[in-house]
Amino acid sequence: MLNTLWLGFFATAAISAVAQWLIGGNAQVFAAMVEALFAMARLSVEVMVLLFGTLTLWLGFLRIAEKAGIVDALARWLAPLFARLMPGVPRGHPALGLMTLNFAANALGLDNAATPMGLKAMRALQELNPRPDTATNAQILFLVLNASSLTLLPVTIFMYRMQQGAPDPTLVFLPILLATSASTLVGLLSVAAVQRLPLLSPVVLAYLLPVALLLGGFMALLATLSAAALAQLSSLLGNLTLFALVMLFVGVGAWRKVAVYEAFIEGAKEGFEVARGLLPYLVAMLCAVGVFRASGALGYALDAIRWSVEVLGWDARFVDALPTALVKPFSGSAARAMLIETMQSQGVDSFAALAAATVQGSTETTFYVLAVYFGAVGIQRARHAVACALLAELAGVVAAIVVCYRFFG
C-alpha cells in the first residue's frame, strides 16, 4: 500500500506538471518540483534534529517508568479491554501501558511526549509480529487511533489565533472537540469493521462508556467557562500534566529503588537509535508530498471541488478552508502555513479561517504518522491502515465543516 501510495504521488505530480506546461504555459513548474525535492529533503533533516532531542528525552523518562512498574500496572488494568480489541497482544504486555500513555498525551495536546511514547509502543508491538515487514491488526488499530487525533485541549490552535490578533482565541474550542471526537469514533469503527472487533461486548462497553460520559461532562463544564478562563485552563492543564508525568515517573522510580539516572541514560540511548533509523522513511514520504504540492495538483483539486460545489448550488465558503484540510494528511508544517495564510487573507475570524482552524485542530498528519510509526519498525505493508486512517481524517474534516456551519454559519 505504501509503495502504491508513494508511486501515486509522483505519477500524479508528473501528470499535473505536464498539464501546467503544455496547457498553462508554465515551464517553471519543473524547477519548482526539483526545488521542492531538495527543500523536503532538508526539512526531513530538520525534523530529525527535533526528533532526536524529543525522543532521547522522553524515552529516557519512559525507561524509568518501565523499571518502576508503571507501564506494567497500566497494562494489567487495561488487559480485559485490549484482550478484545487486540487479541494478538498478550495480557499484561508492556505495549498496552505504553499505548495508554500515548493516547493520554495526545488527548492533552502533548505532542512532544506523545510521539516517543507511541514509537515505544509500536516497537513493543513489533516484538509480537510474526511478519516484520507487514503491519499486524494491533499495530493498525493503534496507528489509526493515534492518527485520528483525539485532542481535548488544542492549545497550539489557540496560540495561532492569538498571534493573528483574534479577540477570542478559544472560539473554536468546542467545534474542535466535536470534530476530533467524530474523527476518532470513525477511525475506531472502521478498524473494528475490517477486523470484526466486538465493540458491543459488555467488557468493551464497561471501559468505553465511562470514558464517553466523562468526556461529555468535561465538554459541558468547559462550555460554561469564559474565553479567558478556558485559555488559562488549557495552558495550565497541559503544562501541569506534562510536568506531573515527569515527576510521577521519577518519584515512583525513586520510591521503588530504581537507579533513575542510569535508567534515563539507558532509555535515552535507545531514543537516539530509534530517531536515526527514521530518516530514510521521512525523506521518502516528505519528498513525494513536496513534489505533489509543487506540481499544482493541489490547486487543480481545489478548483474541481469549488466547481462541483457551485454546480450543486451549495455554499462554497468552506472551500477556502480546504487547503489546510488537503495538505494536513501530508505535512503539519504545510497545514500550519495554509492556516496562517487563510487567517491573514480572509480574516482571523472569517468563516474560512475558523473552519481551517477547526480542521487543523481535529485532524492529524496521517502520512507523516505512517512514515514515522511504521518506519521506526521497518513495516512496508500497511494493509488497511492507510484506508482506515484516511477515512478517520475525512470524518474529521467533514465534521469540522458541518460543526462550523452550526456554530459560525
From TrEMBL:
User: Is the Lyase keyword given for this protein?
Assistant: no
Q: Which GO terms describe its cellular component?
A: plasma membrane
What stretches pass through the bilayer? Answer: 43-62, 140-160, 172-194, 206-230, 236-255, 278-302, 351-374, 386-408
- Chain ranges of the Nucleoside transporter/FeoB GTPase Gate domain: 51-159, 277-379
**What are the alphabetically sorted keywords of the record?**
Membrane, Transmembrane, Transmembrane helix
Q: Record's superkingdom?
A: Bacteria
- Spell out the InterPro entries in the cross-references: Gate_dom, SpmA_SpmB, SpmB
Protein name as it appears in the record: Nucleoside recognition domain protein
* Organism (species): Acidovorax delafieldii 2AN
What is the taxonomic lineage of the source species?
Bacteria, Pseudomonadati, Pseudomonadota, Betaproteobacteria, Burkholderiales
